[in-house]
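Sample 1 of the test manifest.
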Amino acid sequence: MGDERLDAVFFALADPTRRSVVRRLISRESVTATQLAGDLPITRQAVSKHLAALVDAGLVAGHREGRETRYRLTPGPLDAASAWLGVIEAQWDGRLERLRRHVEDGPR
Amino acid sequence: MGDERLDAVFFALADPTRRSVVRRLISRESVTATQLAGDLPITRQAVSKHLAALVDAGLVAGHREGRETRYRLTPGPLDAASAWLGVIEAQWDGRLERLRRHVEDGPR
DNA sequence: TTGTGGTGCAACCTTTTGGTTGCGCATCTG
DNA sequence: CAGATGCGCAACCAAAAGGTTGCACCACAA
């Protein structure tokens, strides 16, 4: 039951603004909340909260640099989400396969 | 910006109870809200709301059968989530690769 | 030293979540 | 038919999400 990490990752990805931040961070290397707020239709404070959610999920890390805080992508935790999805899809395929064989070879 | 489907899928997966429902539905083929409420520490009504979220994401479908409503897994939309994660991870790897080559071959 | 730009923190507000209880209706069963 | 059983709808509630504004503070530049 202790997959709070998974909770946080899926939660972080459930918001389009946050997914957009992730995508921007692939090409931009590092970014500040103020910069993001320039591109997005929301306040710097709102951006800041979204970044906090991403940091909480471990998807982003921020470090202060002089008077600004730069955030960079740390996409490791995406693997946890990928893995979960992979297991589910694999088990589902397994079930279908078992069902198919059951029909082909006949029951019993 | 029209990936509301993705919103719904990630949102549905962000809750441990809902993930648990998905997992149960792999081995059980179909289930009712009342059955789930028997296993889980919450009310049938709460389960019902979780199922509504899963239905909204297209991950589960329910159809009435006599006096009970049976829910079965329809995991198709998981592909959208997988695909999104795949693209992000691929682009990230691409960025790292480009960076590595940049260092190896020397800048310019 | 006096601005100025960038942050973080806190208060506040509205909407959504996740949960509950209560009820009425439909559907099987004895 | 008379109970059970299962469901959906609605009301209600506390807490969290997502957003805003205001403010104090720190770092840098003139």
